[in-house]
TrEMBL record:
Pfam families: PhyH. SUPFAM superfamilies: Clavaminate synthase-like (SSF51197). InterPro entries: Phytyl_CoA_dOase-like (IPR008775). This is Phytanoyl-CoA dioxygenase.
Length: 275
């Protein structure tokens, strides 16, 4: 993989995808990649992301007084709108190019970003599938999960049920104690492999919207700092929301029209291999 200490790494193509990567991603519903970014690039952006999470976080309850979702992580979305430096990372052609290749599409647009910080002693992230929340017309969407530090097992790295994106059960469940119980049981009954792996610095995973995933508690002494970006096929359309969460998610796409392409000021095309 080509490396550089300059921010331009974010615009350089990633050469770490195997010839079978797209097929593997379609089969498994996720992929774990090494060297997506280098240490210098992460060091360039992590302090800014962390300071923005601290500034914008609205969670003020002690861990012991929060519900399961509140204990899972501090969550701040669309940081790219708050800080130009964060925008450089979120708008990276390198990262968006990987997303397009894995989805098998010419172009991807941004849905939104989210910083997910699991505090020391933070609890589990319950089993769930992200696309429950998305009023989108197809499954051509995915999330990059990019840790901003080495993430050993004790810090609760993201874990995936291999092949679960092809299993229709549980798609009506919001992330909750109920989703944890029911999807954990379904994963076991269907013999889906629960893939739990540590992350070296610079590793990242990409997972499909319907892939079941979860994370353990953070038993470390430092926050588990993660940046995520959700990408979608540039031609994807907005659908009528099927739950209150999808209705709320329309706010990520102001001005979007049901049945039309999700082309809004907040969902720009980040990569197009025809340009």
């Amino acid at each position: 993989m080509t490396t550089t200490t300059d921010a331009s790494l974010l615009d350089l193509p990633y050469d770490g995808l195997a010839p079978t990567a797209t097929a593997d991603f379609n089969r498994d519903g996720f992929i774990h990649l090494s060297g997506v970014l280098d240490a210098e690039t992460i060091a360039r952006y992590e302090p800014t992301i962390t300071s923005e999470v601290i500034r914008l976080n609205t969670q003020d309850l002690p861990l012991a007084e929060r519900d399961t979702y509140g204990k899972a992580f501090l969550q701040v979305g669309n940081l790219w709108r708050e800080n130009e430096k964060v925008k450089e990372l979120v708008f990276s052609r390198r990262l968006a190019g990987i997303a397009a290749r894995l989805l098998g599409v010419h172009a991807v647009r941004l849905y939104h970003d989210q910083a997910l910080y699991k505090e020391p002693s933070g609890g589990i992230t319950p089993w769930h599938a992200d696309q429950y929340y998305w009023p989108l017309s197809s499954d051509r969407c995915l999330t990059i999960w990019l840790p901003l530090q080495e993430t050993p097992l004790e810090m609760g790295p993201l874990a995936f049920a291999r092949g679960s994106h092809n299993f229709a059960y549980g798609r009506d469940l919001a992330i909750s104690d109920e989703s944890e119980e029911r999807l954990k049981q379904a994963v076991a009954e269907q013999n889906f492999e629960d893939v739990v792996e540590p992350f070296a610095l610079g590793d990242a995973t990409f997972h499909r919207g319907w892939t079941f995933h979860h994370a353990g508690p953070n038993r470390g002494t430092e926050p588990r700092r993660v940046m995520t970006v959700i990408y979608m096929d540039a031609d994807i359309r907005i659908t009528e929301p099927t739950n209150d969460h999808q209705q709320a998610d329309l706010s990520w796409m102001p001005g979007a029209v049901i049945g039309q392409v999700a082309d809004t000021p907040l969902t720009p095309v980040l990569y197009d291999d025809r340009v």
